[in-house]
Amino acid sequence: MRRDLALDPEPTAARAARRFVTRVCAEWNLVHLTEPATVVASELVSNAICNADGDTGTPLRISVALREPYLYIVVHDQPHDCHLPPAHSRLVDVYATARGVCEPQEGEPDAGKRIWACIRAVPVT
Known about the structure:
By secondary structure, the protein is of the alpha+beta class. It has 3 helices and 5 strands, in the order βααββαββ.
């Protein structure tokens, strides 16, 4: 299962991402993941906007995918130097099982990079 939302790189994008993730978690009966997923989504979107260096014309896209046992949150944006500042990194690390950045490969139709994090959706038994 996967859902996507296009976002304009504006200060309101993080709020729109939180609302989107809240809706997706409710649709997929993952209400218990709403808080961690919205925090992670907000931090990843905020990071993408901060790293855009004033490139306000480049849209972002957030994807939420369920591939059990994980819920993946991915922000797609244009290539630029990307790093999670310590504050963003700590908040994402509180909830995420793993996180990373995928740079575009030569010849990929989507020239952007992907900042991702995953959260365990199914409890460890």
